[in-house]
Specification:
Blueprint: H1 4-13, E1 15-18, E2 21-24, H2 35-41, H3 57-67, E3 79-84, H4 87-94, E4 100-107, H5 109-117, H6 127-150, E5 154-158, H7 167-173, E6 180-189, H8 218-229, H9 248-256, H10 269-276, H11 278-284, H12 288-301
Antiparallel strand pairs: 1-2, 3-4, 4-6, 5-6
Helix pairs in contact: 3-6, 10-11
Length: 317
């Protein structure tokens, strides 16, 4: 828990006011020059603490139409958005409740039906198709977040849809059995309590690279570790790590990541869904040979379990 003196120091030394919220000052950051930048810099995630208050229909429509303006490959909009307003259903779908939940799916169903109606054979089932549709869906979701914030509506992007028995999503939402896969859920709503600060963001070496990828030096790695330790920067998920660990990242890798780690050769539920069920595999656009390539790439990139072992818990981020 933060001590009052620490919080005062944070407010006095490392925050600037933007849109009524405190934003950690990352050195070169200057005052927001326009309303769009102010909105982006005021983005925040509300972890399950939403009022039981619906989103006004006009605002929801504005958010949805803005979401559709996101960039997407070949303007094919290979995604679908499921709007969930029933609160018990929200909880069942993603573990959270708010004003409404938008479930963004990578989805080729619409395009496939149109092609077949016109006499074309269209069966998107490559890794490129899956990555493209997932990217399109994610860009649309983030655009919705920005639009909502501009209207004074908060949000939470969550992978809660990937926790628990994922088969429930096809049953609860009547998703097509093929060529459709839920990527991320967006909870929209109004917070029960206003946060007193925004989470910080790491920048500089290791995040932003000029011209070419820059391999971190030993000193730069040390600086990054210390940045996470600096509570004024607000990078930590947990402010109480100091009693047991030397560095915040000791807690992050040891406790947080350790709780949901498995050996790289053990498949997660999502991987099993892709590989063991032909319908889901087709939905993801994965065939046997390229799927093995993707699996090896994922294992090399993320040698820990991709999905948390936690059960659905609206109290956890």
């Amino acid at each position: 828990m933060n001590h009052p003196a620490t919080r005062r120091t944070f407010f006095q030394r490392s925050a600037l006011v933007t849109g009524g919220f405190l934003l950690p000052n990352e050195g070169a950051q200057s005052a927001p020059p326009n309303e769009t930048i102010k909105t982006i810099r005021s983005l925040r995630s509300i972890h399950g603490n939403f009022l039981d208050k619906p989103i006004p229909e006009q605002a929801l429509e504005t958010i949805l139409q803005s979401s559709l303006r996101a960039a997407n490959a070949s303007n094919n909009q290979s995604y679908s958005i499921i709007v969930v307003k029933n609160r018990p259903m929200m909880k069942s779908v993603c573990g959270y409740q708010g004003g409404c939940v938008l479930v963004y799916c990578a989805d080729y169903t619409r395009l496939k039906v149109c092609a077949e109606t016109m006499g074309y054979s269209y069966d998107p089932k490559t890794i490129v198709d899956f990555v493209t549709a997932s990217t399109n869906a994610t860009l649309a979701a983030q655009t919705a977040v920005i639009a909502a914030r501009s209207l004074g509506i908060d949000s939470l992007l969550t992978n809660g849809i990937h926790r628990g028995d994922m088969d429930r999503l096809w049953k609860l939402l009547d998703l097509p059995p093929t060529h459709c896969f839920p990527v991320i859920a967006l909870v929209l709503g109004y917070p029960t309590q206003e946060p007193d600060h925004l989470k910080g963001r790491l920048d500089g070496p290791g995040v932003i690279h000029s011209e070419k990828y820059h391999a971190l030096t030993k000193d730069e790695v040390g600086e990054i570790i210390l940045k996470y330790d600096d509570k004024n920067r607000r990078l930590a998920l947990n402010d109480d790590w100091g009693g047991k660990y030397k560095h915040y990242l000791d807690w992050f890798f040891g406790d947080w990541m350790g709780l949901r780690s498995k050996p790289a050769d053990q498949e997660t539920q999502m991987l099993r869904l892709f590989e063991a069920q032909p319908l889901r595999r087709a939905a993801a656009g994965l065939t046997d040979t390229p799927w093995r390539t993707l699996q090896r790439a994922v294992s090399a990139l993320v040698p820990t379990q991709m999905l948390p072992r936690r059960q659905l818990d609206p109290g956890r981020p």
